[in-house]
Design brief:
Shape: globular
Helix content: 25-40%
Number of strands: 4
Strand content: 25-35%
Distance between the termini: 46 Å
Number of helices: 3
Length: about 110
């Protein structure tokens, strides 16, 4: 008998699934604040939505996520982003470089461990 997979099972991981996985994998890390950062953009008349897990550890910000574009996913906690605004500006710069118009950026409340 032939065995087939549905189309949805063959699709790559979506950004929301990656967000949930990052949330799970970072649970219990003492001192790590976690929050969602969502983007709504427009490109050639199509609306796109994207979410990453924002991170704050000490005075450093970063993000965990997945995207076809590396600069729209992972942002290291290496001191490059000492303010949340710097982290957001980096995402904005990346979106603009791909021709996306940013319609909305939402920053969620901290997610408890």
């Amino acid at each position: 008998p032939s065995h087939s997979t549905s189309m949805t099972e063959a699709l790559p991981i979506k950004c929301f699934e990656a967000f949930l996985l990052a949330l799970y994998l970072t649970t219990g890390i003492v001192g790590l604040d976690r929050f969602n950062i969502s983007f709504k953009t427009s490109f050639n008349g199509t609306i796109y939505r994207h979410v990453v897990l924002g991170l704050k550890y000490g005075s450093n910000y970063g993000a965990l996520g997945l995207s076809r574009r590396s600069d729209l996913a992972y942002k290291p906690l290496n001191g490059r982003y000492d303010r949340l605004s710097k982290l957001i500006e980096d995402f904005v710069r990346a979106y603009r470089s791909y021709g996306h118009q940013i319609l909305r950026i939402s920053i969620g409340l901290p997610v408890v461990h």
